[in-house]
């Protein structure tokens, strides 16, 4: 068989082990999302005042990557749009893709008018007026979810965006607006201008990491929906659950299921083998690190790079601060926030040594090996 015929067979072959391959896509919103019902209900309560003529309550959505924050918001917005589209406009914005004020408000405009504004030649004031006037004319409220807001921290874009959304009522008295700010961080308010911080005044909703049983439940649900029966054995499922839990990223587990299925189909097999899973794991080794690094600031990436290249065993937090501060001056409070965030994101672990003042000295250990970190981060260091 020539190459052309072989490729054609691969692309058109109608036998598949996937019942619904979209179940393994990053943007898939599951019908069953009960593990985050508490957080979804809390967010819904924040929007409830709008239905009675009041203002929505702003929310700060906090939690490590891959804990269901974005999916929970999209699920809630889906429900609101189905039931209350005549009263509320919900807009979800990925700040990794849209990180300027004009770009963010262009996405709001697109949601309201079903088309994007001209990319050039339109001043921001006109864009803003079109949005708010349309909301006022239709007596609708606006809820904006700004996801991965750390991408707005540079040049303090975040304060400008928050101010323009939350102060809309000053020029458009009947327009009620609210913000759901999504962040994988433990500290936030210090990046907002004082005036903006006072009007944002958000309710915090926390998304804790999934535990072992929850990861297993989610992956098994995807398997049930995405694969035909008997495609993957219970032993291999347990192996993927173990791997996902140890790596601390649910997205990785979902990717592993999809890649393992693809590997089986390449072999023209109707079942996933141990070798298919191992190949998928090898391919995915750097994916978790890439996912997390995308959301870090230059300073945070630099700290990971510095620890990695320091190459010390039994590195204590105090020793790390001395070494880092000697070359790159930094206050201890800023340093401590950095370490806490990197631990929060499961990029590193800290364990108490039992020594130091009050026994609070900690060892600092990276969760990824040196080669992985250098491959993912070396070219991005700018400090």
From TrEMBL:
Pfam family name, one: Cdc6_lid
GO annotation terms (biological process): cell division; DNA replication
Species assigned in the record: Methanosphaera cuniculi
GO-annotated molecular function: ATP binding
Keywords of the record: ATP-binding, Cell cycle, Cell division, DNA replication, Nucleotide-binding
Job description of the protein: Involved in regulation of DNA replication.
Gene3D superfamilies found in the cross-reference section: 1.10.8.60, P-loop containing nucleotide triphosphate hydrolases, Winged helix-like DNA-binding domain superfamily/Winged helix DNA-binding domain
Domain of life: Archaea
Name by which UniProt lists this protein: ORC1-type DNA replication protein
């Amino acid at each position: 068989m020539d190459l052309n015929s072989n490729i054609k067979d691969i692309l058109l072959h109608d036998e598949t082990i996937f019942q619904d391959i979209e179940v393994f896509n990053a943007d898939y919103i599951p019908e069953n999302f009960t593990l985050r019902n508490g957080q979804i209900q809390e967010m819904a309560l924040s929007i409830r005042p709008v239905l009675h003529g009041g203002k929505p309550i702003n929310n700060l959505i906090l939690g490590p990557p891959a804990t269901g924050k974005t999916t929970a918001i999209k699920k809630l917005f889906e429900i609101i749009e189905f039931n209350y589209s005549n009263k509320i406009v919900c807009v979800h914005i990925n700040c990794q893709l849209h990180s300027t004020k004009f770009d963010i408000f262009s996405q709001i405009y697109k949601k309201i008018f079903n088309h994007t504004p001209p990319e050039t030649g339109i001043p921001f004031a006109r864009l803003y007026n079109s949005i708010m006037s349309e909301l006022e004319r239709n007596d609708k409220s606006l809820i904006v979810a700004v996801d991965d807001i750390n991408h707005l921290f540079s040049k303090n874009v975040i304060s400008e965006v928050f101010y323009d959304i939350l102060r809309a009522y000053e020029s458009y008295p009947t327009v009620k607006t609210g913000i759901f700010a999504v962040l994988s961080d433990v500290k936030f308010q210090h990046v907002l201008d004082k005036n903006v911080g006072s009007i944002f005044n958000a309710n915090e909703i926390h998304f804790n990491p999934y535990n072992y049983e929850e990861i297993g439940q989610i992956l098994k649900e995807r398997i049930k929906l995405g694969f035909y029966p008997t495609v993957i054995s219970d032993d291999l499922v347990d192996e993927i659950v173990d791997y996902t839990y140890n790596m601390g990223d649910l997205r990785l587990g979902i990717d592993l299921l999809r890649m393992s299925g693809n590997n089986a189909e390449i072999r023209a097999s109707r079942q996933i083998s141990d070798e298919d899973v191992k190949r998928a794991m090898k391919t995915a080794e750097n994916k978790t690190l890439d996912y997390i690094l995308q959301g870090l600031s230059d300073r945070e990436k630099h700290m990971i790079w510095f620890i990695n290249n320091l190459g010390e065993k039994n590195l204590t937090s105090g020793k790390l601060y001395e070494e880092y501060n000697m070359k790159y001056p930094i206050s201890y409070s800023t340093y401590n926030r950095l370490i806490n965030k990197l631990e929060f994101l499961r990029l590193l672990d800290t364990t108490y040594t039992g020594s130091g003042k009050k026994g609070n000295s900690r060892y600092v250990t990276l969760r990824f090996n040196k080669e992985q970190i250098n491959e993912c981060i070396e070219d991005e260091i700018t400090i």
